[in-house]
């Protein structure tokens, strides 16, 4: 057959199997790819995956488990700003040396602390919990309202090295701002570790707890935090 | 040209034919496909180069905007909405003519739409693309643009469904989707024509895939006609709804000069007005350059000029009513907003708007002027300018708000200008590519309105057999 008689395009149609392309694409490949993409983004892009568990190595192997857990130091002994300032504050070397001029004065683990004290140079701790600059966060407001340390920081008393326990993303903040009663406790109990749901239920049933529920109205509008 | 001019200017009870010259079905195909099949000309390449230079300017300006933020625009404290919204409304408005021609005129069986619907629809899609650029970039932080859509996110943040700005996102994206589908469905039979005529493998495969295996079978035509009718029905309410919702961006606020119930109809009339002006701005030179005078005849041009006359007069009526209500309402703030519009610091913009939009279409009362191509072309450009200024005047209501201490004057920066010119670059680049690679006139539809398509056409042999 010569090209002149029947040009290749003249009667060309798609082969029959092409009818299956929409079915394969919209029925099989499309849903699988879409579901995989949604599930993948949902899991792997979430701050629960990317941020929680961040445990950097600190310059000094300070154990919160030992100090806050076994020895029972109150959080506020070192984190002095927590009740009346926006920042909880990381303690200066001098706070460590209040005790360590007396106890374990020659421990090799404390060498850097002593050096820092002698040279009058702060220890460069690595920051773990950080809200972005555009989010206004005030520790004192949360402490005064009766939100316990462990609600955001987890069981510090069981951590040898401190890691990020909660995702600290905006949705996580809002979860509590929408239902604060799930995290309230008497202000005298804010630093308690292992506060149980039964204790909370008892508190919320008391007059003091009812008053707290009434008075705590965390903002949910944009400028509550993005001032 | 001269003798065909005479046909259209002669008074007759019969309208002139929709397809001029002596055409049969084959010569229609040849004339329209010929535009696509001819080798690339130097002039086409020059035009593409020229418009894509402006497109490049758009891309560079947007890049700098993302780097630096919206501070590169002339925005100030009372005028928080600048040229970005002006350009957005301008481009969305232009899109309306395409939908009106393709959907509304189709449902009303206006056969003259067939010659212009294809490229009016293309113009719609390209105009809406230009429009979508501006809400996308005006947020400044483009990586946050997805906040406009209701997508679950780690911020537990959800769009505010009471905001007209959100309705706008849905209105314009729906409009774009439906317009694109409508345009594409209409293209399928013509793409198959181009596939069957393709001389090289690339064109054959490209048109072959795009034409979805169209063979012109009876069943294909039945399904096609049904789908086209359904899409026309879907698109028709969009002609009214999209610009209504765009007008809500302004009307739902409480700014004097914006908070008026006349806005939705006034915006829709303005949109159709500007859209037809843009169709004419494109059609008058294109029909000449690509030899499509037999299809886009003076009858088409005249009809479009009549639409411009009607909608232009409607827009003029709306301008007058705004002033009347400002006085009649007895609200001193409303009154001030309008006195300030006409006689305040932006009097020059108001004057431009009124003279371009109200005075210039009035020339079309004369049949001689509305069938004159030069006059049509010049006036259509005036209307385009006027309609840009209308959106500018409305947006600049912000410059003197309730607090005289914060009154200010908006001056555009070089980046405001480069983005506007750049959006024209995007529009014309897309349009020039369209003219070269797709049939600019709906081949199959034009054949349907020719006398030969009528079963009782006297050229058929069976007539003699009676």
Written description of the protein model:
The complex is a heterodimer of chains A (227) and B (466). Chain A has 227 residues and is an all-alpha fold. Chain A folds into 2 domains: 21-49; 51-90 and 125-225, no CATH class. Chain A has helices spanning 20-44, 47-50, 64-70, 75-78, 93-100, 111-119, 139-145, 149-153, 170-178, 197-205, 207-215, 222-225. The radius of gyration of chain A is 29 Å and the shape is extended. Chain B has 466 residues and is mostly helical. Helices cover 69% and strands 0% of the residues of chain B. Chain B is globular and about 75 Å long. Chains A and B meet through helix 9 of A and helix 6 of B.
List keywords for this structure.
heterodimer, A: 227 residues, mainly alpha, B: 466 residues
Describe the main β-sheet of chain A briefly.
none
* Largest contact between chains: A-B, 15 and 13 residues
Quaternary state of the chains: heterodimer
The whole-number mean of residue pLDDT values of chain B reads: 88
Give the % helix of chain A. 40-55%
Count of domains of chain A: 2
General shape of chain B:
globular
> In percent terms, what proportion of residues of chain B is strand?
under 5%
Secondary-structure-based class of chain B equals mainly alpha
Low-confidence stretches of chain A: 1-6
In this structure, how is the largest beta sheet of chain B organized?
Answer: none
Whole-angstrom Rg of chain B: 24 Å
Total number of β-strand segments of chain A? 0
Q: Could you say which structural class the secondary elements and strand pairing of chain A correspond to?
A: mainly alpha
**What share of residues are in beta strands of chain A?**
under 5%
Rg estimate of chain A, integer Å: 29 Å
Termini gap of chain A: 80 Å
Query: What global shape of chain A is seen?
Result: extended
What string, H for helix and E for strand, traces the elements of chain B in order?
HHHHHHHHHHHHHHHHH
Number of strands of chain B: 0
């Amino acid at each position: 057959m010569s090209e002149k008689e029947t040009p290749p395009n003249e009667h060309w149609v798609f082969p029959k199997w092409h009818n299956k392309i929409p079915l394969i694409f919209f029925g099989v490949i499309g849903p699988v790819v879409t579901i995989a993409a949604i599930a993948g983004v949902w899991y792997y892009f979430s701050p629960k995956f990317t941020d929680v568990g961040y445990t950097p190595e600190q310059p000094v192997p300070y154990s919160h488990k030992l100090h806050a857990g076994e020895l029972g130091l109150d959080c506020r002994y070192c984190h002095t700003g927590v009740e009346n300032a926006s920042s909880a504050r990381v303690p200066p070397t001098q706070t460590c040396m209040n005790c360590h001029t007396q106890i374990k004065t020659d421990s090799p683990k404390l060498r850097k602390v002593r050096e820092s004290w002698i040279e009058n140079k702060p220890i460069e701790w690595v920051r773990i919990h950080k809200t972005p600059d555009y989010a206004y966060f005030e520790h004192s407001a949360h402490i005064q309202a009766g939100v316990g340390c462990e609600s955001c920081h987890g069981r510090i008393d069981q951590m040898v090295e401190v890691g990020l326990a909660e995702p600290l993303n905006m949705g996580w903040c809002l979860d509590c701002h929408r239902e604060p009663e799930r995290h309230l406790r008497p202000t005298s109990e804010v630093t308690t570790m292992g506060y149980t749901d039964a204790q909370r239920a008892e508190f919320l049933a008391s007059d003091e707890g009812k008053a707290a529920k009434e008075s705590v109205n965390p903002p949910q509008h944009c400028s509550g935090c993005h001032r | 040209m001269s003798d065909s001019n005479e046909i259209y200017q002669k008074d007759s009870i019969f309208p002139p034919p929709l397809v001029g010259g002596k055409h049969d079905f084959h010569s229609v195909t040849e004339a329209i496909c010929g535009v696509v099949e001819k080798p690339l000309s130097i002039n086409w390449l020059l035009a593409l180069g020229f418009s894509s230079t402006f497109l490049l300017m758009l891309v560079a300006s947007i890049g700098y905007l993302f780097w630096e933020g919206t501070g590169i625009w002339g925005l100030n404290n009372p005028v928080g909405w600048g040229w970005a919204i002006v350009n957005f409304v301008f481009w969305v408005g232009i899109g309306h003519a395409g939908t009106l021609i393709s959907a509304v005129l189709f449902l009303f069986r206006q056969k003259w739409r067939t010659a212009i619907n294809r490229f009016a629809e293309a113009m719609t899609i390209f105009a809406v693309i230009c429009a979508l650029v501006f809400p996308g970039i005006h947020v400044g932080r483009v990586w946050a643009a997805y906040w406009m859509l209701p997508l679950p996110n780690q911020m537990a943040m959800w769009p505010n469904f009471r905001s007209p700005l959100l309705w706008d996102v849905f209105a314009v994206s729906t409009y774009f989707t439906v317009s694109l589908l409508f345009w594409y469905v209409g293209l399928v039979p013509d793409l198959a024509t181009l596939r069957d005529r393709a001389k090289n493998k690339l064109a054959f495969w490209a048109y072959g895939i795009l034409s979805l295996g169209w063979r012109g079978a009876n069943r294909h035509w039945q399904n096609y006609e049904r789908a086209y009718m359904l899409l026309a029905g879907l698109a028709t309410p969009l002609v009214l709804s999209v610009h209504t919702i765009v007008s809500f961006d302004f009307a739902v606020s409480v700014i004097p000069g914006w908070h008026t119930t006349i806005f939705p109809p006034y915006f829709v009339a303005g949109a159709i007005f500007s859209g037809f002006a843009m169709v004419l701005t494109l059609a008058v030179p294109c029909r000449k350059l690509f030899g499509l005078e037999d299809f886009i005849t003076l009858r088409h041009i005249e009809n479009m000029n009549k639409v411009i006359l009607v909608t232009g007069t409607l827009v003029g009526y709306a301008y007058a009513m705004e002033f009347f209500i400002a006085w009649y309402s007895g609200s001193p703030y409303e009154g001030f907003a309008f006195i300030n519009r006409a006689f305040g610091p932006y009097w020059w913009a108001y004057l431009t708007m009124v003279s371009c939009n109200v005075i210039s279409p009035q020339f079309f009362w004369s049949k001689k002027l509305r069938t004159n191509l030069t006059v049509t072309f010049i006036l259509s450009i005036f209307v385009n300018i006027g309609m840009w200024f209308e959106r500018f005047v409305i947006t600049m209501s912000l410059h003197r708000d309730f607090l005289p201490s914060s009154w200010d004057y908006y001056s555009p920066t070089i980046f405001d200008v480069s983005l506007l010119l750049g959006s024209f670059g995007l529009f014309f680049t897309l349009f020039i590519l369209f003219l070269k690679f797709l049939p600019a006139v709906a081949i199959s539809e034009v054949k349907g309105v020719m006398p030969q398509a009528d079963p009782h056409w006297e050229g058929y042999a069976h007539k003699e057999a009676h």
